[in-house]
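Case study B.
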Amino acid sequence: MYRWDFTPVLANADLLAAGLVNTLKITGTSLACGLVLGLALALLRLSKHRWASWPAGFVIEVFRTTPPLVQLFWFFFALPLIVGIEMTPFMAAVVTFSIQSAAFFAEVFRAGIVSIERGQWDGARAIGMTHAQALRRIVLPQAVKRMIPAFMERTIELMKTTTLVATIAYADLLYAANEISQKTFRPLETFTVVALIYFVVITAFSLVARRLERRMAISGESTVH
Amino acid sequence: MHRWDFASVLANTDALLVGAIGTLHIFAICLVLGLSLGLVVGLGRYARSRWLYWPATAFVEFFRNTPVLVQILWFYFALPILLPFSVSPLEAASLGISLNSAAFSAEIYRGGIQSIERGQWDGARAIGMNWAQAMRRIILPQALKRMMPALTNRAIEIFKMSTLASAVAYVELLQQGKLIASLNFNPIEAYTAVAVIFFVFLWPLVQFTYVLERRLAGDE
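Model:
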């Protein structure tokens, strides 16, 4: 019978904490960039001009249809050689996960904007707003509210996807697990603890998301996915 | 300016072919295991008995709320400590991806079954079917049709997740891409080729889900 011993893992709590901070750093940065970029992609995709909507559609399709790990390797190993700049693992990860989540967010934004009734646009136009004003003041505020559950879901996916950075040696939580397990020869305890940390953080986040969703349901808003 | 040279990749077509077979191999395993285990767990989530409901719910919550790469590495590095035998890269990756997909597809099955109107159950019962017969002959066939787009999406996710098996050195497309890149010093072409191959495999599947979604929206 195997004797579990968590003390060597707990002795390395500082490594785990630093890893968790880095995981949250990548998630936060990619989320912020992904949202901005996703909105831009959605607006381009909705544009009447083909030279705007087709390239945006192409970027969205490519990043939704290829595996995230392939994208990460491409941005880390291939892109620096093409453009001639050094890429740190952190940069490569943020670029990859920002564009990748932007592709998914773009579809959420698009569905949200399309879900707003034509009359809202007409009303805004009738009181003299330009297209940009109507979008910013009338349509987006209503659309974003409907999109919140989809955003939350995507953010959870993003946090789980950030574990891929461990494969290019960025010191996130999973990388810390590798390091500790090699140092202490306690892979069972280390990987179990790290799985539990991810579980606690992600569950906490999804509970908040569910509460928000329920509040939204009470206020009678429909949501988009 | 970089001069693209795909000759060095094309010279390694056989290595890519081996990788493609590895990818399809693990994809097939995880698709079958993940979707069938998902049905079992989904029925557990739908069950009234607490003894079925709680374990199924715990399973779904745990596997949905942890990253699949952590699961794969757990099965590869941690599980063998508890077992009297070692775990191969294929086994570890298949376990991680299959159980993860089972948790996600369980929720699809549950939602699909719940979406079938109460009257269908009553009708099946009225003509003398028991629970299992009603489920198999009346409810599931109708629910499956509604679940098709979501299940196809799951299949696409499984295909993409198969690349994570490279983290435990299972020989699949990305792993072969790494090998070609390090032997020929051509990461740009090697990784671009791998990305294109995945796109070519998955793009038709993605289009297929759009068709399914549109057809379903038209039917309902």
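Chain B touches chain A at residues 2, 61-62, 65-71, 73-74, 77-79, 81-82, 156, 159-164, 166-167, 174, 177-178, 181, 187-188, 191-192, 194-195, 198-199, 202-203, 206 (CB under 8 Å). The remaining cases will be described in the next quarterly update.
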